[in-house]
Amino acid sequence: MTHEVGVRELGLIEYRAAWQAMQHFTNTRDAASGDEIWLLQHPPVFTQGQAGKAEHLLFPGDIPVVQVDRGGQVTYHGPGQLVGYLLLDVRRLGIGVRELVSRIEQSLIDLLAGYGVEAAAKADAPGVYVDGAKIASLGLRIRNGRSFHGLALNVDMDLEPFRRINPCGYAGLPMTQLRDLIGPIDISEVADRLRDHLVRQLGYAQQKTLAGGIEAYE
């Protein structure tokens, strides 16, 4: 087990503001900086990863598209989707990138199991799936041994915008969400459970709730 991680629960945050804050946090941290997990939601936005291909963005309509510096193809964020940004010193944790992805996926699988939902990861397509439908997406960036970006779990949202893209670069990939599998669900409860699973899987000895928003990192 390693030292503690700080957790920020940020509510609904514009995507660009959160992205810029993540970059600033990562670029200015040093060996003594603590790791943080940010839990939040975004207003509707499509984000296109570094290797993203234009043909996977079918008809975005009135939803903005943002080119970003994470891995992966295009995805959608919107209210009712739980986003977790993982601002970690991966080198200090002593794990590789593939192991980090596996631990994040396992956190999501364990979380869903707690709701009676059987989920699984795919070796050739990062993320978490239920009966072939994607319920959670992953997209990370590692810079100088430190990670940012993270995961997005569909909890209780409008899934229609996913039909405007090839999600994560896969044409016709079905998407699902927790509400459709178990009925009405409180996203704040899901956030609390996800936080605990991430802390456990990533090997932190303890966690602390951090006050304040991301203003200091913008």
Automatic annotation (TrEMBL):
Q: Which InterPro entries match?
A: aa-tRNA-synth_II/BPL/LPL, BPL_LPL_catalytic, Octanoyltransferase, Octanoyltransferase_CS
What EC number(s) would the UniProt record show? 2.3.1.181
Q: Which reaction does it catalyse?
A: octanoyl-[ACP] + L-lysyl-[protein] = N(6)-octanoyl-L-lysyl-[protein] + holo-[ACP] + H(+)
Predominant location category: cytoplasm
Ranges where the BPL/LPL catalytic domain occurs: 31-206
Q: What residues does the record give for site: Lowers pKa of active site Cys? A: K134
Keywords of this entry = Acyltransferase, Cytoplasm, Transferase
Q: Where is the active site?
A: C168 (acyl-thioester intermediate)
Per the record, the pathway is: Protein modification; protein lipoylation via endogenous pathway; protein N(6)-(lipoyl)lysine from octanoyl-[acyl-carrier-protein]: step 1/2
Annotated substrate binding sites? R70, G71, G72, Q73, V74, T75, Y76, H77, S137, L138, G139, G150, L151, A152
Main function: Catalyzes the transfer of endogenously produced octanoic acid from octanoyl-acyl-carrier-protein onto the lipoyl domains of lipoate-dependent enzymes. Lipoyl-ACP can also act as a substrate although octanoyl-ACP is likely to be the physiological substrate.
Spell out the note in the miscellaneous section.
In the reaction, the free carboxyl group of octanoic acid is attached via an amide linkage to the epsilon-amino group of a specific lysine residue of lipoyl domains of lipoate-dependent enzymes.
Protein name in UniProt: Octanoyltransferase
Q: Which organism is it from?
A: Stutzerimonas frequens
